[in-house]
Amino acid sequence: MDFGINNFFDKKHKESKIGHFQDLEHIDGVSISTISCGLYNKKRDDLVLFYFRGGANYANVYTQSTLVSENIKWNRKIKDKKIYGILINTRNANALTGNDGYNSLKKISLNISKLLTAKQIEDEDKPREIKPNQILFACTGTIGEKFPVNAILNNTKNLVDKIKYNQNKLIWIKAALGIMTTDTKPKLSMAECKIGGSNVKIYGVAKGSGMIFPNMATTLGFIFTDANISSSILKQILNLNIKTTFNAITCDGDTSTNDMVSIFSTGSANNKEIKSFKDPKLKQFINSVHQVMLNLAKRVASDGEGATKFVTIKCLNSKTEKDAKNICFSIANSPLVKTAIFGEDPNWGRIAMAIGKSGATLKYEKLSILMGSKIILKDGKLDKNYNEAILSDYMKNENIEITIDLSIGSKNFTAYTMDLSKEYIDINSDYRS
Amino acid sequence: MDFGINNFFDKKHKESKIGHFQDLEHIDGVSISTISCGLYNKKRDDLVLFYFRGGANYANVYTQSTLVSENIKWNRKIKDKKIYGILINTRNANALTGNDGYNSLKKISLNISKLLTAKQIEDEDKPREIKPNQILFACTGTIGEKFPVNAILNNTKNLVDKIKYNQNKLIWIKAALGIMTTDTKPKLSMAECKIGGSNVKIYGVAKGSGMIFPNMATTLGFIFTDANISSSILKQILNLNIKTTFNAITCDGDTSTNDMVSIFSTGSANNKEIKSFKDPKLKQFINSVHQVMLNLAKRVASDGEGATKFVTIKCLNSKTEKDAKNICFSIANSPLVKTAIFGEDPNWGRIAMAIGKSGATLKYEKLSILMGSKIILKDGKLDKNYNEAILSDYMKNENIEITIDLSIGSKNFTAYTMDLSKEYIDINSDYRS
Fold first, then answer.
1. More exposed terminus of chain B, fewer Cβ within 10 Å: N or C?
2. Residue B279 belongs to a domain with what CATH number?
3. Measured between beta carbons, which residues in chain A are less than 8 angstroms from residue B428?
4. Top-confidence residue, B326 or B300
């Protein structure tokens, strides 16, 4: 993987199965710094700081794993209304590292908060004292290895010195690259909308390529906005949107100990305060946040480890949303379905197998299965126009869409995943990849 | 795969990661015939008949998939106390084939029952009329393809003509080979024990290599005994033993539409009738059936598609058996754990991830993780003797044992699986493998 930044302006790198990534520019109140602490053998940035000079409202969702990383334990204890920064390191997950891992975060937050307070005194008209418990952490990498606290502490001064108050597309790409692990492409997305009469921006970056199967949140995703929105409303927006975005993707059915998706609002757009989640003026904003989150989530799935194809799985007209979701993920996580897609084999019997093992309520005589717009099974019978040669041809596409219509209810779900290739095995059987 | 029978007497073919298979000899009342109907392009047997000339008591367990194959629908309707035969075909699962698939079985059972009745008249002192609903079916192969009813009907005469009343190790291996799909090794097992003063034999054959994750029964397994045991007691024995044998294995987490494990007793051992499942005279027999079933189930897991290693996963001292089972299967089905084992990487962080995502109740400060006899995590802390080099060395073994000790209860579970290799992808991305 070439981390040369300029490559990512190339058509080749901006392109992906789900389209170009967007260029992010400036968002007031967000500052970015990225550096290398040498956590990898190769030269690449591995530490990224998002700094909110005026503070930010925020909301987070975390993995539902019963074993969570030390940084998530840290974040869960934070009760401050505003936070001033989030520090993201790669290579080490700080999971199953115990007290040692937790104490490392104490040391780093103390150190960073002092450095940022000094920066406030230097740069701000009304400098604030920034406290250790106003810093969030996100960690991603190997589980169970000792957390590299000293390598990080040795580089925090440099990290804070390099903070840029004005962002451009270059620094956003650097940030998106700096949080990557086995990802092959940086993941960025943006939207703009209005709240009342005010224009607001929504920017997002994410990472994730393996150990991705949402059980609440998944992978790392960070959404930034200049909207003036309270933390409690941000939390409602995040909880609403997470279900159909980051919680609708899977790469390998494996749920990380470190999953975390956050949204931060700096308020610099100066829209009139919104008092309620149900305020109609918020509708456009909620949709735009959804659009950014879905775009990022799709980018994560399409860059799943070893992916050669991006797969969308729709389950329609189910009795319950839970059934629809179970069917989608039973198909999306089936290694037999995923290898058939890799092999470009329209082996729909494996899709039927996955529907059956999901345990969802269904009536066989009402079940329909489609690939793209091609009907395979219609009301439990092989469609009269079924033609394996045409289906085989369809499987050559980079984007595969599978639709299951249960025709017994009105609930739907859509999941996103990728195929299972030999490269997945290469990546993951490599000693400590 | 070479289906030359004599190869399977070689040391190379008899050996497996879990030891040699046993030679099965004769069991009174069981007859075997195997032929090729040309269902495969290559020359190999694809149709196997087990015929019980004096009838057999029997019990079956089936897949819990909500989409089941037509042969399982057929078998479920059979209410006769004795059955006379089970016909097993490969290459075609007869699943999602609808009425057409079901009617094929009607035709075949009618045809076979007539042929067997004629054979009774020719060979038996007291010939019986064998009825269509005294024939069971097991099917395995591709889902959703038209069932090859004519190819089978054209060969039933030959199949019945070739019935052998006396079995030897050769015919048992032929039967075990005849039911294979992507398996690389035939799976046979036997035990002998006493019921009261009578010696009884228990023979078993099984198949299965992919689409294997038990949800009640899994794959195909057939157990034969000359014991005199009623069908209702056989059912209790099967239900008891299935949990820790065929329902304790997984290859890829995918549950077939066709899973079926059956036990047949001919009664020719002439032991005194057993009235109750709880009769102490039955204890040895139940254990011996368990031994045969476990041996077969392990052979299925160790021959999982692309397997290079056989993996045993134990979860000890859990609050509930369900939790212990969930943890075992969360590890056993994790592609990240399985690829690490393939890569001989003692990446125990992925084991911890799988424990966490299982959702089982645990206390981190009581959690221990071992590989073989090597302690990694002890009461939530990295063990003082932890040595990655020694663990790396351990990973080179063909048999890997992972033990999780939760230390919060008294329930245990053991699951069996294999690693995930590039060959798995090769096998399953091959067009219609």
1. N
2. 3.60.70.12
3. 335-336, 339-340, 343
4. B326
Q: A95 vs chain B: nearest CA distance in angstroms?
A: 8
Judged by CB atoms closer than 8 Å, whether chains meet at B254 and A353 is answered as yes
**Chain B residues touching residue A329 (CB < 8 angstroms):** none
**Which class for A284: exposed (0-12), middle (13-18), buried (19 or more C-beta within 10 A)?**
middle
Last residue of a domain, one of A302, A337, A370: A302
Per CB-CB distance under 8 Å, the chain B contacts of A252 are: 334-336
A237, pLDDT greater than 60: yes
Clarify whether residues B96 and B196 are in a common domain.
yes
* B180 in the same domain as B47: yes
Dump pLDDT digits (tens) for A123-174. 999 999 999 999 999 998 888 889 999 999 999 999 999 998 999 999 999 9
Q: Are B350 and A254 a contacting pair at CB < 8 A? A: yes
Q: A350 and A276 in one domain?
A: no
Higher-confidence residue: A353 or B88? Answer: B88
CA dist., res. B73 & res. B133, Å (int) = 12
Average predicted confidence (pLDDT) for chain A = 87
Interface test with B, best of A62, A64, A66, A70 (most B CBs within 10 A): A66
Rounded to whole angstroms, how far apart are CA atoms B166 and B30?
Answer: 8
The model's pLDDT over A59-108, given as tens digits with 9 standing for 90+, comes to 888 877 778 889 999 999 998 889 999 999 999 989 888 899 999 999 99
A100-130 pLDDT, tens digit each:
999 999 999 999 999 999 999 999 999 999 9
B291 and B335, same domain (yes or no): no
To probe the interface with A, which of B63, B143, B336 has the most A CB atoms within 10 Å?
B336
Domain extent at residue A70: 5-302
Within a 13 Å sphere around the CA of A73, how many CA atoms are in the beta-carbon half?
21
Same domain membership, residue A276 and residue A343: no
SS3 A335: helix
- Residue A2: the pLDDT is 39
User: What's the rounded Cα separation, in Å, for the pair B83 and B109?
Assistant: 12
The catalytic residue positions of B are 218
User: Which of B237, B271, B302 corresponds to the end of one domain?
Assistant: B302
Question: Does the complex come out with an ipTM higher than 0.85?
Answer: no
Find out whether B129 and B185 touch, Cβ atoms under 8 Å: no
Distance CA A242, CA A223 (A): 12
**Which CATH number does the domain housing residue A330 bear?**
3.10.20.340
Residues B82 and B177 in one domain: yes
- Same domain for B330 and B222: no
**Beta-bridge mates of residue B222:** B205, B262
Do residues B276 and B315 both lie within one domain? no
Most confident listed range (A181-185, A238-242, B316-320): B316-320
Contact B102, B114 (CB under 8 A): no
Indicate the residue of B215, B257, B343 with minimum beta-carbon distance to A430: B343
Q: How many domains does chain A have?
A: 2
